Amino acid sequence: MPRVQPKSEGDLAEFKQMFGELEEFFGFLPNDYLTMGRKPALLAAVGELTKVVVFGPGQLPMSLRLLVPYISSRAAGCMYCIAHCAVLADRHGIEAEKIANIHSYATHPSFTPAERAALRVAERANYLPNAVTDEDFNELRLYFDDDAIVEIVALISMMAFYNRWNDTMATSLERPAWQYADRTLGQTGWTLSKHG
């Protein structure tokens, strides 16, 4: 049960275009945006940030733009965002083997050395306190220039907002994301938790 009642989509008609784009990307409208709609300026700002970080021009392929948030959410422990990231990864063509084995990215053969370096930084950035080291950045620089590294850290930072928002608000998970996560992530420790 959400801790704050979301607005209805009809109450947020000025965001119709944004909601349409989100539905196209996710396959459904995420409930967290409806809760943010209680403060329309916040919803607009978060929507714009997400548009720039995830969809804006840059060097990172979409696969990494989805895997970095996924491991960030796993490290943060937000079951809502884990489910969203997994369903997005599947929807946008990331191999099922990577989705199911993201917790083993450091050793699983389906991950490239570049992906491992980015995912290591994403995971360690979500520890409290932050555990990213100079050695982690040196490894990252073997595969990415500074502009691409800024994109990676932007993805991590954006997801920190979403993880804290949804875990704190106990945002209700949408049926498509719940069904996908329940079917594919249960063996990895995923549970619906407070998001039911």
Compact overview of the structure:
This protein is mostly helical. Helices cover 62% and strands 0% of the residues.
Radius of gyration: 16 Å
Average pLDDT number: 97
What is the H/E string?
HHHHHHHHHH
Major sheet, described briefly? none
Query: What is the helix fraction of residues, given as a range?
Result: 55-70%
N→C terminal distance: 6 Å
Write a concise keyword list for the protein shown above.
196 residues; mainly alpha; AhpD-like; 0% strand
Task: Give the topology, please.
Elements: H1 16-26, H2 31-36, H3 40-55, H4 62-76, H5 79-91, H6 96-100, H7 113-125, H8 134-141, H9 146-169, H10 175-184
Helix pairs in contact: 3-9, 4-5, 4-7, 4-9, 5-10, 7-8, 7-9
Structure description:
The chain is mainly alpha-helical. It is built from ten helices and no strands. It has helices at residues 16-26, 31-36, 40-55, 62-76, 79-91, 96-100, 113-125, 134-141, 146-169, 175-184. The protein starts with 15 loop residues before the first helix and ends in a 12-residue tail after the last helix. The model has no long low-confidence stretch (mean pLDDT 97).
